[in-house]
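Propose amino acids for all 153 sites.
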């Protein structure tokens, strides 16, 4: 399964849902500081339900530290991209990078030398963005689908 990276997430409920996503798919969740909440935040715990012990979650002090531990391609998800997320053949070690709510990935992150590609999830015109964990779920499930849902039941 790919690595899911949330760059400076701000909403605890979204991260709690991402923990649940990681637990049910086997994706590994990486959180890049600063976080907009405490990891003991009740809303994070409530959204993650009892999946916290079933998920692989790592916290990194910055993006470079996170990427230093991740050897795969780095695919940044942004509404400004021109390539659709479905036009990629995903690999098990891919890094799926998502930005904070509500701003998305900043320009300096999108210009990072480790970025392999920028991808978009199509939406109707005039819409700003999807919920962070909804977007991450779409991407993780597409990557998993392409591997035949390996390990899933």
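Proposal:
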């Amino acid at each position: 399964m790919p690595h899911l990276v949330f760059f400076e997430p701000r909403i605890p409920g979204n991260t709690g849902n991402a923990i649940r996503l990681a637990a049910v798919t086997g994706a590994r969740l990486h959180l890049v500081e600063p976080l907009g909440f405490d990891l003991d935040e009740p809303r994070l715990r409530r959204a993650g339900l009892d999946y916290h012990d079933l998920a692989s979650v790592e916290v990194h002090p910055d993006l470079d530290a996170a990427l230093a531990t991740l050897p795969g391609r780095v695919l940044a998800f942004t509404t400004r991209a021109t390539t659709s997320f479905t036009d990629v053949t995903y690999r098990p070690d891919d890094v799926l990078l998502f930005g904070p709510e509500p701003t998305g990935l900043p320009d300096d992150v999108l210009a990072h030398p480790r970025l392999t590609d920028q991808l978009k999830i199509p939406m109707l015109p005039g819409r700003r963005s999807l919920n962070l964990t909804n977007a991450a779920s779409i991407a993780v499930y597409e990557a998993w689908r392409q591997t035949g849902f390996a390990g899933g039941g």
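Strands lie at 3-7, 28-32, 56-60, 74-77, 83-84, 95-98, 115-120. The first helix runs from residue 12 to 25.
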